[in-house]
UniProtKB/TrEMBL annotation, chain A:
It is an enzyme of class 1 (oxidoreductase). This is 2-oxoisovalerate dehydrogenase subunit alpha. Coiled coil: none annotated. Belongs to the BCKDHA family. The branched-chain alpha-keto dehydrogenase complex catalyzes the overall conversion of alpha-keto acids to acyl-CoA and CO(2). It contains multiple copies of three enzymatic components: branched-chain alpha-keto acid decarboxylase (E1), lipoamide acyltransferase (E2) and lipoamide dehydrogenase (E3). Its EC number is 1.2.4.4. The keyword Transmembrane does not apply. It holds the Pfam family E1_dh.
UniProtKB/TrEMBL annotation, chain B:
The keyword Oxidoreductase applies. Its EC number is 1.2.4.4. Residues 4-179 form the Transketolase-like pyrimidine-binding domain. This is 3-methyl-2-oxobutanoate dehydrogenase (2-methylpropanoyl-transferring). The keyword Cell cycle does not apply. It comes from the Bacteria. InterPro entries: THDP-binding, Transketo_C/PFOR_II, Transketolase-like_Pyr-bd, Transketolase_C. Keywords: Oxidoreductase, Pyruvate. Its cofactor is thiamine diphosphate. The lineage of its organism: Bacteria, Bacillati, Actinomycetota, Actinomycetes, Kineosporiales. Pfam families: Transket_pyr, Transketolase_C. GO terms for molecular function: pyruvate dehydrogenase (acetyl-transferring) activity.
Amino acid sequence: MEQPANPADPVRLLEPDGTLRDDPSGLDVTPELVRDLYRWMRLTRRLDTEAFSLQRHGELGLWAPSLGQEAAQVGSITALRPTDHVFPSYREHAAALVRGVTPAQMLEQWRGVSGCGWDPAALHLHAYTVVLAAHLPHATGYAMGVQRDGTDEVVTAYFGDGASSQGDANEAFNWAAACNAPVLFFAQNNQYAISTPTRLQMRTPMHRRARGFGLESYLVDGNDVLAVHAVTREAVAHIRSGAGPVLIEALTYRAGPHTSSDDPTRYRDQAEADAWLARDPVARVEKLLDARNWWEPGWREALDQECDRLGAELRSAVQAFGPVELGDLFDTVLSTRTDLLNAQKADYGDFVAGFEEVAS
Amino acid sequence: MTRLSLSAALNSGLRHVLEEDPKAVILGEDVGPLGGVFRVTDGLSKDFGSDRVIDTPLAESSIVGTAIGLAMRGYHPICEIQFDGFVYPAFNQIVSQLAKMRARTAGKVPLPVVVRIPCGGGIGAVEHHSESNEAYFAHTAGLRVVICSDPQSGHYMLRQAMMSGDPVIFYEPKRRYWEKGEVSSDLRLAPAFDRAVVARPGTDATVVCYGGMVSTCLEAAATAHEEGHELEVIDLRSLSPLDLDTVTASVRKTGRCLVVHEAPGFAGLGAEVVSGVTERCFYHLEAPVLRVTGFDMPYPSAKYENQYLPDADRVLAAVDKLLEF
């Protein structure tokens, strides 16, 4: 895809007012594609707002909202094959939803009943990674395995502008380039690393830094789901052909707080948030659907109902989590229980049983 | 049986692994044509190719990080960290990722990764080349931490580590790399790699040690024998999990226990052994459990290390103290 004349301008197909640019660069923008992307964004937004509410009700220990970043995630994950392995950080709820993580599985880690919730191998979606950029070398290593297996899979890792400052990110970029690993580094530049704005985080934009490592790179309007989809499609084809790793920097905005514990009013003003709100990724697609009259009769109402069902499913999932048993955790530390773990499990079991005897 | 140096015995072990396990890959700095700075991977790149013996960028965090990714993909990586003091950049990957992935995914993502680290002093090296950092990793649940002491244990334990299915921090005492011993490659004869062994039987006191200190303690036991005292020397081999059964069986017999390691003593492995022995052998002990360790200072410059490192004389002085009770 042609980069705009000014390299600082991101690739954009859909204007904030819903106007579709003439040159979709090979992307066949059909009503079905637009509705499909819109559906995933709407479902993610519902998941996100519902989970945030659940956190406020004390049902989740923490939640990291994806509000405002739906286009960056949906546009990219839908450009991958379901068998392309994905390494998310911790805000990729859209990517997880598209990959088939159920609402209940999605909440497990935030509820505190497990460390992951889904089977990474079955969904080709790794566990969320909280330590910033630690998963980027994992993606590179996984891609080295793909190389050795001789398949054409593409490994994708999501990360943010803050994570790009970590040594692991820069090691992974360099390493992937040096061994031509089939990996896509997808950066969601959401403008803030908790409270630190991107201008204090880096001097050189990520997509330009990538070129220095020897990665192909793109800058894309991350609130334009069609542009993200088109750019990712092209990047993935590039990687799949064996031409080497790519970095995509998607310019977007974390519309909500960093997590449910954060207070963004302390470090950014409303005028800035409002300016980004005018570029809301979901509203933008609605304008296109309106302008082209690409809604099918009853489709929007059906989607509203699907969102409501998802919300209800999340609420009932939270209620359904039962008590957890510490005893199970002794069994998965290593491949076999050690003398120490055996003794601790037995002692803990006796301790608990002692209370039960007293109670009876 | 073949007479090999520790370095050659490890090389032989790696060769077995690469032959028997098509998913095994070695990765590290200079492990290819150079054969590693200690030549432990000598000739493997030539025989198995650069796809299986991978010369990597100089980036320790990513050596472990990419190994984690390779393991997720079904490969069995063996990382080489060039020197003990260089493992710190990889510390995050080891303790926050490698160690915890199996547990946090309820067993769905095992990470069979072996991280080989030459360890300890005694070779007159410059700074960051002589450290004993085993306690950091032994403190982290989800890792196996083992250390060989001679060519035979090196050969067996490396192959067993690769077969364990768990992340293993595999220490090699670099000052023993060139010491030779008889090596059998028949794994059926090998004791389990998470078990301690009695390196020398005795009746008067138990000396618990590991890695580079085993030879030192055996030397001390030989001298003690001449002086009429029979020391039982236990080579721990596995630092996590710790085989306290073997240790306590010995201490119940001898009634006295000394722990020897070259890492600084404070919050070191020795403290863990002392605690376990005290708890399990309280009524059998004739004396308090003592330790001989490196001092609690950054590893000193090379000309000081003969004074810093426990030697047979320091071990014997502590044994005398034990026997006086």
